[in-house]
Amino acid sequence: NDVLRLEGVGKTYAADGPSPVTVLAGLDLSVARGEVVALVAPSGAGKSTLLHIAGLLDTPDTGRVFLGGRDMTGLPDRARTEARRRELGFVYQFHHLLPEFSAAENIVLPQLADGVSPRVAQTRATDLLGRVGLSHRADHRPAQMSGGEQQRVAFCRALANQPALLLADEPTGNLDPETSDKVFDVLMTLVRETGLSALIATHNHALAARMDRVVRLTAA
Ligand code: ADP
Ligand code: ADP
Q1: Cβ contact 70:9 at 8 Å
Q2: pTM for the whole thing?
Q3: Residue 112 per-residue DSSP state
Q4: How far apart are CA 167 and CA 88, in angstroms?
Q5: Per DSSP, what are the bridge partners of residue 64?
Q6: From the CA of 52, how far away is ligand 2's center (Å)?
Q7: What ipTM score was computed for the predicted complex, to two decimals?
């Protein structure tokens, strides 16, 4: 009952050139339903490569990627894009919110693009903003919010399409330590309350220790 399963995943950059770089080799990794897994990796160990492969943004050279038990290996781009939109939520170190839209609009718009009705999209946005303590910021633009508030809105946006799996790359990495801890608490509460599965890359060992399991990447 794994939401995500990587089997024997390998990736080599510049494979045809004079100096190929093997980043991942024979990697097995799974995230069970409702499980929150920390991904800890020194810089250059292939954390971004792994997240891109799990997020169906890149394909491995060897091995297989299963999402919800479905083999995604070799699916056409269109099917991968659809699976990405339907089953995955993404959070990055930087929020990537649309600056000209309000917090609520940033959460509503991706849902509309996925065919959710405006009424349902608005209801979900209101509910999510309430859960992260930002009801009073619904009509504010990103520039009118603090870094921690912006990141909390980004969490709401990632969850708005009710994904099966959240992929996060240093979700509190650009915040000062104190804010980072608080915002991370909000993320964990949100993940637990919604029963979401998550793979969360972090350099912060204290944060990693609070997840269900830690996967350490070492140089291949
Ligand atoms: P991390 O996120 O852990 O720092 P990455 O997955 O970004 O690691 O990269 C791992 C290694 O692969 C690094 O040595 C990086 O330079 C190399 N690499 C990443 N992308 C490419 C690419 N497109 N072409 C060649 N080398 C790459
Ligand atoms: P464990 O807790 O079982 O010791 P780790 O957390 O150390 O496992 O790593 C998780 C899995 O990922 C292990 O199977 C390990 O061998 C594998 N692994 C770690 N780094 C890499 C890498 N760069 N390429 C391929 N597999 C890796």
Answers
A1: no
A2: 0.88
A3: H
A4: 7
A5: 7
A6: 17
A7: 0.63
